[in-house]
Amino acid sequence: MSVDTVSLTGWGRTAPTTALRFRPRSYEEAAATVLGCGPRGSIARGLGRAHGDAAQNAGGSVLDMTALDRVRAIDAAAGLVVCDAGTTLHRLREVMLPLGWFLPVVPGGRYVTVGGAIGSDAHGDNHRAAGSFARHVTEFTLLTADGEVRTVHPGTPLFDATAGGLGLTGVILSATLRFRPVTTSLMAVDTQRADGLDDLLARMTRGGHRPYEYARIDLTARGRATGRAVLVTADHVPVHALPASARRTALALRPAPRRPGGLPFLSGLFGRLSASALNEIGYRSAPRSRTGELRSLAAFFHALDAAPHSNRVSPTGGRVHYAFLVGHGQEETLRRIVGRIARSRCPSFRAVLRRCGEGGPGWLSFPAPGWNLALDLPAGLPGLARFLDSLDEEVAAAGGRVSLTEDARLRPDALAAMYPRLPGFRALRAELDPTGAFRSDLSRRLSL
Ligand SMILES: Cc1cc2nc3c(=O)[nH]c(=O)nc-3n(C[C@H](O)[C@H](O)[C@H](O)COP(=O)(O)OP(=O)(O)OC[C@H]3O[C@@H](n4cnc5c(N)ncnc54)[C@H](O)[C@@H]3O)c2cc1C
Fold it and tell me: Which domains does the chain have, with CATH numbers?
């Protein structure tokens, strides 16, 4: 097992802290690390794609799980996979797609581990249809603070505390996942432009039959254009829709187009003007209305991965990813927040609005029925902390919540209103891990 002392951040590159990083190569090495961790405890880490400090542990241990990445068993008839927690969604896609199975839930990046996807209970563009990641986990094994390995099933408190539990109940070692059947590696994509937030909400509420849906909002537009957006909906293409000549290669892995690595030409483009210009280009270059465009799975789901180190061009101090959700019926709050961001002239990037469906069982899972808006902001913006605190207050007052896995700055007093099942989570942790073997910067900051 390799061990080193490293400075770690989340994907947003804010708040670096130093920890002892262990990289276990077996379940036994992982158990020895947990049992031997000092008073600052330990936390599991996947590929560090969570934007905030959920997978950091200042002055303690971090278990880098990426060497535990074996696909252990596949049931090709049932679409079931047993794999180590460090296996990436990218690898699972490569293994399962030629067999006619696809990931049931795809978060924005494919370089995410199975352990990270369960620990965050990740969700994708199809949340209304498929729920979040943990819904598709039929069991997992969990290394707990006493060094035991427990097999955990849905419908149990330990499952519900661990799904979205941010690594604080233990280290997931392996999981069994249920995939969804597909007959091609193509998506049929519809695109339309909405000229303001009301138009967008009306289009999304009217909906359609496509299970995947997201809107890329221009949060720099103001006045009547406030909240203008490009709305994208999509579904898998069935094989019978392809010409006969293309059916033999229907399930072929088709790579996404690559963008230049590191995007050096974008460095420094985090100012107000450049944010407006990029949002303007994104909006204007989208078709007003187009249906049935064919895209590969990679091009549809992993456009962000085409620039694998895009976070390296973060502005000085990194970027804050603000992801919140308000319920249906709270559209006025959403309108107010979008209006406030637009009027504040914050240079916001990559703002995405989704509708979420029924929440999962995870006590600290983020998705719940309603509107989920996520955006990136330069961390060094003057007055940003106060501004986001005031947005938190609006979100909490509307019965909404901020995503913990993406968070690096929420104040603990805002938490209880957002996550009503927090007392149960704390009680289970106190019983399962009385000495606090599992801790992170996030858990200390928010007293989880
Ligand atoms: C470009 C981009 C787009 C994204 N889009 C989405 C999206 O659409 N929807 C969404 O939900 N998320 C999204 N995310 C966030 C990302 O999917 C999650 O943060 C995911 O958890 C990251 O996985 P990871 O392997 O990198 O885990 P890490 O970031 O390393 O860890 C995340 C959390 O999981 C815990 N964890 C990791 N491994 C284990 C384990 N083996 N056992 C127990 N706990 C563990 C950690 O302790 C931590 O609390 C996006 C991130 C990026 C960078």
Answer: 67-182 (3.30.465.10), 186-259+266-413 (3.40.462)
Its pTM surpasses 0.90: yes
Ligand 1 pocket test target in 27, 42, 47, 49 with most atoms within 8 Å of CB: 49
Asked if 251 contacts 100 with a C-beta cutoff of 8 angstroms, the reply is: yes
Q: What is the mean pLDDT of each run of 10 residues along the chain (448 residues)?
A: 94 93 97 94 97 97 98 98 97 96 91 97 97 98 97 98 98 98 96 97 90 95 94 96 90 70 44 78 90 92 65 70 97 97 88 95 97 94 94 97 95 93 97 97 96
The amino acid that residue 422 corresponds to is: L
Place of tokens 């330069």: 378
Q: What does the radius of gyration of the chain's CA atoms come to, in whole angstroms?
A: 21
CA dist., res. 68 & res. 113, Å (int): 10
Greatest alpha-carbon span in the chain:
64
Beta bridge partners of 22: 3, 63
Beta-strand pair 212-217/229-236:
antiparallel
Indicate the top mutation candidate among 45, 142, 314 to test ligand 1's pocket, ranked by most ligand atoms within 8 A of CB: 45
Among candidates 175, 164, 173, which has minimal Cα distance to 54?
Answer: 164
